[in-house]
Structures are given as C-alpha cells and as structure tokens.
Automatic annotation (TrEMBL):
Keywords: Hydrolase. One of its GO terms (cellular component) is cytoplasm. Belongs to the peptidase M20A family. SUPFAM superfamilies: Bacterial exopeptidase dimerisation domain (SSF55031), Zn-dependent exopeptidases (SSF53187). It comes from Actinoplanes derwentensis. This is Peptidase M20 domain-containing protein 2. InterPro entries: Amidohydrolase, Bact_exopeptidase_dim_dom, Peptidase_M20, Peptidase_M20/M20A_hydrolases, Peptidase_M20_dimer, Xaa-Arg_dipeptidase. Gene3D superfamilies: 3.30.70.360, Zn peptidases. It comes from the Bacteria. GO terms for biological process: folic acid catabolic process.
Length: 389
C-alpha cells in the first residue's frame, strides 16, 4: 500500500519538481499568485482531477477533486511568496508536495472509497486565505486536512509544533502640515507621533512574556523635508501562544500608539487588515501516524506533541474547525532560517527537492493509513458529521 503511493510520487517526480522550480523562478505575492495557481491547476487536470479555479470569490484560489466516498482527505497547497524575498518560506515546496500527495492517492481512493481534495490556498503570508476559504465553504466537505511545511535542517524534526496566534493592523496618525523652517510651530507632526509610539512599544517589550511577539514597520511618514508631516502610516502585528491572549496584547500595543497621538496632538486610527491567525492544533492521531512513517525516509521526530514555534499560519484556523496536521520537514544540510534571502536560495535545490518528495509520500501514507483503518475512519467521519450538523 505504501509502496504504491511512493511509486506514484516517483513516477511524477519530474513534473512535481518542475512545478516547484517554476514557482520558485516566478514568485508571486499574496492574492497575486495568478501564474502559480494556473500552473497548479494544469498539473492537477493532467492527473485526472476535476479542477475549479477562482473559488470562494478569490481569483487565485482553486480546488481539485478526485474520487468519491464518505471520507474526504484535504491537502492544502500554498504558493504565495514573500515581498522582496521570493520563496523564502518554501511555499513552492508546499504546493508541489501537496499536489504530489493528492496525485499519489488516486489508486488508494479508488480502492478504499474515499475522496481526495486539493485546496489551492492563496495568501498565507498575509491575508488569511484559508480563513476566507473556511468562511466561504471550501472546507465544508473536508473530513481531515493536511500539509507539510519545509524548514531548516535538524537532527530530528519538530513535526508536532504548535504555532502562535497572530493579529495584524494598520495605524494612521493624522496631524497638520506647516513649513518646516518658516513656521514649524503651526504644524502637528504625525511622524513624531509614530516615533513616540515606537519608543513606547520598545519599552513595552520588557513587560511582556518571552513567548509574545510585537513587530512592525513605518510604511509612510512624510513626503519632503520642508513640510511637517501631516500623516504617518504604520503596519504592525502581535503574536501570542493562543488566540485568547491576542486581545490583551493588542490593547497594550494600541495604547502605545494612543500615547503617540496624545503627546503630539495628532489623531490616531486603527484598522484590522486581515483575519486573525489562530494557534495551530495538530490532531494527535494523524500526527502520530505521519511520524510513524518518518523512519522509512531516514528521518525522525522529536517527542510528540511538540513545543511552540513563534511562527504563525492560517492553517491554525483550519485546525480549530477540523482535524488537521501541519508537520515540519527539514531541508537536510540547510541551516539558513526562513524569511531570509539565504533560505530562499535553498528552496529549489537538491535538499528542497528531497524534502518535497518525502513530504508528498508521507502525507499520502498518512491519508492511506487513515482510509484503511476502519475504527479511526469512523471516528473522523463522526466528527465531520457533528461539525456539519
């Protein structure tokens, strides 16, 4: 059974690696992944899947389905890149590995009577594409959801790590322009408000737990040196280990921005820019099943369930609704960290290709194990029926 799905991945190896390398060569950012989505759709059609593009009102989202039955295995394919960095988070690997797993499951789906659904999920890095697809029904028929995420080398993979909850927002300070040399006292400096606020945020970091995160940047803060800046705009995010902590930390950070407005006489406005990302809740049995197959590929895992990583993913939102896994898979020999130029340079190399093929086989093996295990299959079906009722 495992050898069958492994063999299909091997058969499709050239096309899967071709997809990954093509995405890497032509990176597209959140909600602009038009060529990437089209390449994935073409591959899935060539494998006999029924493909729908532009689903959920999202032009770069898609679904590809095969088979029929009362169990639907969902495989999430991400393909958005990072602005200025390209595929520095390895979403080209994620896309091709999920596609490979889906294609490898065709014969198992026929044999065990289940359905395979690949979900092309845009805008993971920013925009919360999976949450939008959740809200709009793309996951309604999915019993379990899976994907694997690449990371740097490790002796043993932290396959069971949870991720942090995250909320992102835009801050706009509005002041009053004046001649910066002739009458600066007539102005209200919106850029100064941003400076005061960021100093306050920096001081706040001393008072928050070590597993909380605050990050941001100034998007605009003036147009020329001889005008007191009338407006400044910042983008910020806060992260906490669980969604319950987001509101408190966000309130404390917003107070820092309100202090900037108070100190300078400007006004401040806040705008939530995307859905909150929830903390990841890996399904224990699916995770154990995935980990049990690691030794076949010369890999091993840290003890489950694993710790907490300070990264965030909208797969966390999926995991709050249906049984899901999001294990990490190492690029062996690569020590660069994600979201760097160095890691991006490694995501279309032999270690990346190996991780892609291993992830495809591991996900396919996990799904086949579930489909063939009658008691667990019934358990997950019951969970799905309860959710849908």
């Amino acid at each position: 059974m495992d050898s069958d799905t492994d063999a299909v991945v091997d058969e499709w190896q050239a096309r899967l690696l071709g997809l990954s390398h093509s995405l890497h060569a032509e990176p597209e950012v959140a909600f602009a992944e038009h060529a990437s989505a089209a390449k994935l759709a073409a591959l899935m059609r060539s494998a006999g899947f029924t493909v729908e593009e532009g689903v959920c009102g999202l032009p770069t989202a898609l679904t590809a389905t095969y088979g029929a039955g009362d169990l639907t295995v969902g495989l999430c394919a991400e393909y958005d890149a990072l602005p200025g960095l390209g595929h520095a988070c390895g979403h080209n690997i994620i896309c091709a590995s999920s596609a490979g797993a889906a294609i490898a499951l065709r014969s198992a789906a026929d044999r065990f009577g289940f359905r395979v659904k690949l979900l092309g999920t845009p805008a993971e890095e920013s925009g919360g594409g999976k949450q939008l697809m959740l809200e709009r029904g793309a996951f309604d028929d999915v019993t379990v959801a899976m994907m694997a995420h690449p990371g740097p080398a490790a002796d043993r993979a932290s396959v069971g790590e949870s991720t942090q909850a995250c909320t992102r927002f835009e801050v706009t300070f509005r002041g009053r322009p004046a001649h910066a040399a002739g009458a600066p006292w007539d102005g209200v400096n919106a850029a100064d408000a941003a400076v005061v606020a960021q100093v306050a945020v920096g001081l706040l970091r001393q008072q928050i737990p070590p597993d909380h995160r605050i990050a941001g940047f100034v998007r605009s803060g003036g147009a020329t040196t001889n005008i007191i800046p009338e407006q400044s705009v910042l983008e910020y995010e806060v992260r906490t280990p669980a969604a319950a902590g987001l509101t408190e930390l966000r309130s404390r950070v917003w107070a820092c921005f309100e202090a900037g407005a108070l100190a300078t006489g400007s006004t401040v406005e806040f705008r939530r820019t995307e859905p909150d990302y929830l903390d990841l809740r890996n399904d224990q049995w699916l995770l154990e099943t995935y980990a049990a197959h690691l030794p076949a590929f010369g890999r091993s895992a840290l003890p489950l369930p694993g710790g907490l990583t300070t990264a965030s993913t909208d797969m966390g939102n999926v995991s709050h609704v249906l049984p899901s896994i999001h294990p990490m898979i190492a690029l062996r020999g690569v020590t660069a960290m994600p979201h760097t130029h160095e890691f991006a340079a490694h995501t279309a190399t032999p270690p990346a290709d190996e991780a892609l093929l291993h992830a495809a086989k591991l996900l396919a093996r996990t799904a086949t194990t579930l489909a063939a295990d009658a008691p667990h299959r019934e358990t997950y079906k019951a969970h799905h029926q309860a959710r849908r009722s």
